[in-house]
Amino acid sequence: MPDALMLLVALVVTVMGMGWLALSVENHWEQVRGKAACPPATVKSLRVLGAVALVTSLVLCLMVDSASMASLVWVMSVAGAAVIVAFTLTWRASALAPLVFWTAR
Amino acid sequence: MLQNFRQSMAWVHTWFGLALGFVLVVVFFFGSLSVFDREIDRWAIPASRFEPQPMPSFDKLMRPIFEDMQPLPDARAFTAPLVNGPLPDHFDKVKSWGAYTTHRDPVLTMFAGYEVPNAKDPETMIFAQRTVDPRTGAALPDDRLKVGSGFFYPLHYSLTFYWKNVGYWIVGFAALMMLVALVTGVVMHRKIFRELFTFRPRKTTQRSMLDLHNLTGVVALPFHFFFAFTGLVIFAGIYFPIGHTQLVALHDQHEIHEALETGLPHDPAGVPAKMASVDAMVKEAQRRWAEKGMAGDVGFLQVQHVGDANGYVSIYRAGTDRIALTGEGIHFKASTGVVMREDPPPTAVGRINEFLTGLHLQHFRHWLLRWLYVLGGLLGCACIATGFLFFVEKRKRQHAKQGSSGARVVDALGVTTLTGMMIAALGMLIANRLLPDVMPDGWPLRGDMEKYCFWGTWVMAMAHAFWRTAPVAEGRIAPAWREQCLAIAVLGVAAPVLNWVTTGDHLLRTIGNGYWPVAGADLFMLTGAALALLAARKLQLRAESKITVNTPAMEAGHA
């Protein structure tokens, strides 16, 4: 896979990871899925998914660049992803619904 | 005085943040622009709009230029008071020649240092600089200002206030207090993780400003922390000048000792010597790098003790593919071309230092990371700006009741430093396109005129800010914000249009040719203009809705 594509995938995975972590917070779950509270088991699995996604994106960054460069790219992409997720929650919260498509409505 | 720890932290955060925020926002904004300093240079100096070039041939191209170089009038004026008696017309004793280039530089900056006869401090040197087209050796006019690397970048770390290095100290103190503001901010903010993604624009202005302040501060916390910290590390020599004050004797001794260890002569021998082919030395250095599996280009080339038997040539590999700026130095005897020393791999401390300074100075090739740095810098600006706005929102009604103008002054300074700074930057770029190619006799040099236009525009923006923030004293929104946003929108379109008119490089052509330095600068300004227009519209709507909401109440009051 070319480097640029790999970095793009890393960015997308980071956004997904931050999205899952955000959804594990009660307020944001409500913004996306309405009043019904998120079951505790789902909260846990969302956090695990988020963590796995962030680790995956770090690995992808490490595959493209040397460790020193990759760590910077990863830290900054986490910051960028957090901003994207926060503003999506503000203006288009439903756009994050596909991240939890498997959970019952 | 204050009831608990958290309140005292809030006090420090508020007042130091307010006082130094005005400096920090300038540092953050021009730091963000400096990520693309070379590209802004291309925009500002159309003659340099061509592809980046490797270090040219020393023997054929660079050497005759070095031999022809002499200090410019501003360097002479700077050095004159450091000398007993008059300065010589011609400086003959060359101490060093050097040239530095990166993968983003089409033009090459060359510098030479000379011994100054009769200097009060015998170690005084005077420098000459010249920027050349490495394909032909033709010099760029000396009055051309590299707006990016020669003005926005120094503004970022010194405010271009060089008298007794005061600018460096102000920025350094601001960076130190930035670290304090980050720590105190984290202490004040109770729900870092729970509210990490929270922005509620429909709540009160005060609440939504605090949301944005927290959001932009926390998501980029590692960036803010590391850039404030590494900025201090880079200038540690200025902030802890012990090597040139208390420990100067030890410092000088260490230099001599180090020269003995490395075998690279500390002083000239006083015996003239010819110089062997430097191109052959470059070839040998590149062969040795390739042998180590690190084939690369020359980033930095330096000749010490030029024309002396003790002269040597140092060649460093460009750090294009790593964080460190340059590395793998190889040193040759200038008279024979024999390798004197190959730098050993850096120590652990050296590596950490290279990483910390390199990650801040970013001369590497990684466009995604560069843009992420711009994002981090702009998030920093947003964080500081929303801090000001929160301060004003929280107090303006109370101040209005008390008849105090505190909130109004803070708002006016906020307008000056935020929108005013962007107007000044755009004003400078517009002046760059409008000023005549050569200034008429009796006028300052072209580059100096551009700087005057920058400061002049900023002063005008400040006057406007203080004039048009009067409503804040009555607890309302200042029209200055909206009007300056409109000014940014107009200037942000004017600059790319003027670039087109004066150089013929419109966006269709630059994008079509894939010439991103200029296309990127134009697109960045146009995007900024569009966002400023959007902000101006939102502010207009808000001002109108406030008026319609307030009117019935006021009428009722009258009745």
Helix content of chain A: over 70%
Instruction: Give a count of the beta strands of chain B, DSSP E runs of length 2 or more.
Output: 7
Distance between the termini of chain B: 46 Å
Number of strands of chain A: 0
Q: Major sheet of chain B: size, sense and barrel closure?
A: 7 strands, antiparallel
Overview of the molecule:
Helix content of chain A is 75%, strand content 0%. By secondary structure, chain A is an all-alpha fold. The relative contact order of chain A is 0.20. The model of chain A has no long low-confidence stretch (mean pLDDT 92). Chain B is of the alpha+beta class and 559 residues long. Chain B is globular and about 80 Å long. At the A-B interface, helix 1 and helix 4 of A face helix 7 and helix 13 of B.
Note the topology.
The complex is a heterodimer of chains A (105) and B (559).
Chain A: H1 3-23, H2 26-33, H3 40-64, H4 67-91
Helix pairs in contact in A: 1-3, 1-4, 3-4
Chain B: H1 5-34, H2 37-44, H3 58-68, H4 73-79, E1 94-100, E2 108-115, E3 125-132, H5 147-158, H6 166-188, H7 205-219, H8 221-234, H9 236-239, H10 248-262, H11 278-291, E4 298-304, E5 312-318, E6 326-333, E7 339-342, H12 348-361, H13 367-402, H14 406-434, H15 446-467, H16 479-503, H17 507-512, H18 516-558
Antiparallel strand pairs in B: 1-2, 1-4, 2-3, 4-5, 5-6, 6-7
Helix pairs in contact in B: 1-5, 1-6, 1-13, 1-14, 2-5, 2-18, 6-8, 7-13, 8-12, 13-14, 14-15, 14-16, 16-18
Summarize the structure.
The complex is a heterodimer of chains A (105) and B (559). Chain A is mainly alpha-helical.
From the structure above, extract its key features.
heterodimer; A: 105 residues; mainly alpha; 4 helices; 0% strand; elongated; B: 559 residues; alpha+beta; 7-stranded antiparallel sheet; 18 helices; 59% helix; globular
